[in-house]
Amino acid sequence: MASSPLPLVLASSSVYRQALLEKFGIPFITATPDVDELRLAEEPAFDLVRRLAFEKATALKAEFPEHLIIGSDQVAVCQGRILGKPHTRARAIDQLKRSSGQEVVFYTGLCLYNSATQESHCIVDPFTVEFRELTEAEICRYVDQEKPFNCAGSFKSEGFGITLFKRMRGDDPNSLIGLPLIQLAELLRLNGVQLP
Q: pTM score, two decimals?
């Protein structure tokens, strides 16, 4: 007889990631991991988000010893420069000015950690956004309307941020919001979670 899957934990306080995971229609709880998100010296964006996704998932293993724990992290890269969360209006405006007319690659790290077996599966899902040429007035209007201060790259693609783009390329548009659901669904199935 097959054992039932372990309870699911989302290691994040992000309302965006919670909303994405709710699409699966399976029960989960959320917990905020205590992880230093500072980038290591010369750490590439790909390695940064992979490491942080793993650290976020494993940071909760003592509190949730027999669970499947989901960790995720995201950064944007524009012209070789990593863009994190702006946190302020001025930084959001500056980020969007830099992104205007440019391709920005979003790297979303995902880790599914089984705290019972201590096995982990980590991936990084890239997604490319090409921005339109944006005027300063457009940027200011957008920032004032949507206030994307807690979003890497200073926009919300699920909201009005979509109006800033010329085109998008990637396997899973959910990864742009913060959680690659296609990859996550596969990892959950590998761990005995039935979807749909």
A: 0.90
